[in-house]
Specification:
By secondary structure, the protein is α+β, with helices and mostly antiparallel strands. The chain folds into 2 domains: 46 residues, Double Stranded RNA Binding Domain; 29 residues. The protein contains 2 helices and 3 strands, in the order E-E-E-H-H. A 3-stranded antiparallel beta sheet has the order 1-2-3, covered by helices on one side. The radius of gyration is 26 Å and the shape is rod-shaped. The relative contact order is 0.11.
């Protein structure tokens, strides 16, 4: 298998696939826009799935914000215990 590419076989149609050594084109998928086809080609050629990366980032940010809020609520009433010399006990 060669490098993944996209071709434009018609108006508003972009087909992702690869060319076999004999020159035959093997299609993977069709897309309505050049950007969608380019994103798929990027992924198939080993690039990062940027949509999945963005969704993962959003989910982790949501979880981290929730953790910070929970930790703040739990620890807000606690005061460090310090002896007369200023050492934590």
């Amino acid at each position: 298998m060669g490098i993944w590419v996209y071709i434009k076989p018609g108006p508003q149609l972009y087909t992702v696939g690869f060319y076999a050594p004999d020159g035959e084109f093997h299609a993977d998928s069709d897309w309505a826009t050049k950007d969608e086809a380019a994103t798929r080609v990027h992924y198939l050629n080993g690039g990062i799935d940027t949509d999945k990366l963005e969704r993962t980032h959003e989910a982790l940010s949501y979880l981290l914000d929730g953790y910070k809020m929970s930790a703040g609520a739990v620890f807000s009433g606690l005061k460090p215990m310090i002896n007369e010399d200023g050492d934590y006990i």
